[in-house]
Amino acid sequence: MRDMLGREELITVEKALEILLSYAPLLKRPDEILLPINDSYGLITSRDINSPENLPSFNRSTVDGFAVNSADTFGATESFPAYLNIKAEILMGEEPQFKLEKGEIAKIATGGMLPEGADSVVMLEHTQRVDEKMIEVLKPVSPGENVIQIGEDAMKGECIIRSGHRLRPQDAGALAGLGITDAWVYKKPLVSVISTGDEIVPPDKPVRPGQVRDINSYTLTGLILNAGGIPVKKGLFIDKYEIIKDVVEDSLRNSYMVLITGGSSVGTKDLTAKIINDMGKPGVLFHGVSLKPGKPMIGGVVDNIPIFGLPGHPAAVNVCFEIFIRPVLEIQSGVNEKRFDRGKRTIQARIARNISSGPGREEHIGVTLEERNGELWAVPLLGKSGLITTLTKADGTAVIPLRKLGVQEGEIVEVRLLT
Amino acid sequence: MRDMLGREELITVEKALEILLSYAPLLKRPDEILLPINDSYGLITSRDINSPENLPSFNRSTVDGFAVNSADTFGATESFPAYLNIKAEILMGEEPQFKLEKGEIAKIATGGMLPEGADSVVMLEHTQRVDEKMIEVLKPVSPGENVIQIGEDAMKGECIIRSGHRLRPQDAGALAGLGITDAWVYKKPLVSVISTGDEIVPPDKPVRPGQVRDINSYTLTGLILNAGGIPVKKGLFIDKYEIIKDVVEDSLRNSYMVLITGGSSVGTKDLTAKIINDMGKPGVLFHGVSLKPGKPMIGGVVDNIPIFGLPGHPAAVNVCFEIFIRPVLEIQSGVNEKRFDRGKRTIQARIARNISSGPGREEHIGVTLEERNGELWAVPLLGKSGLITTLTKADGTAVIPLRKLGVQEGEIVEVRLLT
Hints:
The structure is a homodimer. The first copy, chain A, is an alpha/beta fold.
């Protein structure tokens, strides 16, 4: 885009993301599959999961002690204990075959099933043995105390885990607890990675002067894995229209997202944009973003498959992936919940020195994090943005928003953690 | 431990962890292995990685423009531009076969190699074409401007990635950029999971009254995977000394850590502690911690292998894993750096209602997180700690420290994120 004076006008990060995400509902998604819960950690549920039964299926003690009718303990104190008769011991894993009558209690362990006639459990510590047959209760219990009621954990038919939820360790545990051993989840989306650029060579080949090694396909592979996708490396291609068009076409057929990385010259970028537009509709959605590093970023959609042209700078690849690509990939993976998530990847810290930033762009600066007197400080890494090693030293990137011209030492900034 | 009045005295979380970690240097660790970087994402380096060469190996342009001797641009302005002769165009991926003389410039693209005689690059935007052979430079450049110098990214022999570092996407990218295609990393440690308890049944079997399904081995499997270990499920065993002793013995021989989970009764816990002590030295290090949930936690070491007896409550399993087991597992995995890490898993939020806590214990409460007017609030989940579904609803657990009797609505608390 150009403004009235003919200068190139860049789109803001916010606006670019808004356009991109407006296509989200239509994007191609992987099929669902029924997997044993042991194989589904980290995958996204494709259906609501309802409880097939009441959990617990019986009134269960949460402590070691004595099952009792709470009314029998009312008013009990250390000076005036309630004297109750031990009727039986409830064995773990067994259903009590008796009923408690008034004045009776039964020994029970944590996890044990309450007998009929009992509504609560007195903790062992609040009792004193009188003899084989009798105990003193030194403290009253209220109805339901130290007991988990039938269905209190999950009611039969209740939705336990919603569709679109990433299965965490405790979620798998809960499913096992309900007797659910398999879950419907989405397969992971395949993401094609195409490296381009006449000057780019594979890392295992000798480098002639003027050449650089393929870095970004390795960074992208890791970022795709972290975001829950399956990277498919298509290889390294020279900047020729027909050659790149062929591999993009193949990638559009066989994956859910296409990433083109490599050359960072204007010529290469224009070629990438042209190919995206020639492939289908709507084509390029934005080309050039007011973001540093990451200005040459291209975002597009072709036949409901997102396709990105990434900047050449390694640090820009990382920043652009997290801002533009990860959210789209998560939607395609099936994530569909507003669960708090930003905190997992961004934190707040005080910036350790003044940083100036150009007007009208969002800027991301590599930082290390350190604690000083209990406060977190972000120490900017010096070095040009084109360096490969800047982000290997960084714990995260501090974000200077669009509308700020910089930050003062001590000011609070958002830091996106690099994990 | 008992105090002077004979009451059981629980060890604090801090003290328990200190005792446990004092054994860290001696703990058994997996071997190292040389892997292609494509297979080493998330693994821990076992050796320092040094740069085999200078990176870049040539002075490289970071912009599209004209390579120049900066002295030729001094004083240039829009009104009084410097007129310079275009000597050649430097093709991407090729070494320039000429030298710039005074008054000469050469066209260069981002990533291109500077010719001899040039020390900087004028951006295309700061030039104006006069004719085929000449341009005007409208703004001076300083020496080194828009250029990455030889070795500026990495000097030959410089340590790029230290031993004990978890390889992140950008680290793999940097290695590729240096022509390093394989890395020495530690194998992932095997962690045995032993489920015990007479009342515990597998999730695919019918449950009789008084029985509960094996939940914790599923939660632990996911937690071990998340922490970078390989879970080995040993199966479900009844609470018999000889039986559990046999499987613990086998686990000690064939893995790097042993987790025993299941029954939460005092009897089961005592059996676990006895077996740990009978297995070897030093045996049980602590048994019972001032922590809720998680009080019955047992930690021990036998012949340099850590062995834990976990509480029966599902929420306690999660809390105890993160507090005691993850740090030990990370050390055994080879992690050896003080890289900022807590922020990845804990954040600060305001608690949304008053919570009282028992004196002298650390308490963890399941919370959901929500943003209110730009501030993060932790909303406590109601429900008893024995519930399985509490943590499926939670985004994290809020921590009430040992020395506090509770928190007031609006007070800032640390929240450990459940991921």
